[in-house]
């Protein structure tokens, strides 16, 4: 669902479910502007009051930054961004720059 959403927005899907020893990237994509995007996908599957993107806490942000740095080494010529896609039933919210890569 998230990959199809990004494709409809003219993103190129580079890979999905990329595993490292220290974490996993749900989707690695290329924005139409050339930015390499590490995408964290969060889905609401229960009656929890919180929104899915709220699960991206400080520990998860730190892990995403580490994953982005690993990807940055493979794409040194491209800017890197971390986005979160939040899915609740049929509603998809795309939060760009959800975690700031310095």
TrEMBL record:
CDD domains: PoNe_Nuclease (cd20736). GO terms for molecular function: nucleic acid binding. It holds the Pfam family UPF0102. PANTHER family: UPF0102 PROTEIN YRAN. Belongs to the UPF0102 family. This is Endonuclease. It comes from Berkelbacteria bacterium GW2011_GWA2_38_9.
